[in-house]
User: Fold Copper chaperone PCu(A)C from Pseudoduganella umbonata.
Amino acid sequence: MKKVMTMLALALAFAGSAPVLAHESPARHGGIVKSAGDMSFELVNKEGKTTLYVDDHGQEMATAGASGTLTVLKGTEKSQFALVPGEKNTLVAREAVTLARGNKVVAAVVLPNKQSVSVRFAIK
Assistant:
């Protein structure tokens, strides 16, 4: 009985900590959100236009002066696309990017303060 109570107490303790571990923000633009450090990145691909939204602690982070590369992995194929600053907190791909289920996407971003950040997305 003592062993069962101990296991139950541990299970409840870990169940309560799950929301604390969930660091990723909700998708505001219908994309996929991933976190890197204190920043969150939302990858949105609509009508061939690919946009990466950048937030820092839930606040839009200006991307003027930022740059990056979007690498799309389709099985053994690899395609790269330049990311340039868009409006407000966005980086946009210069070319049309086609993403499909099963693709992996790596965004390598150099922020205006010259900090490099890499974030990986899985297309489901």
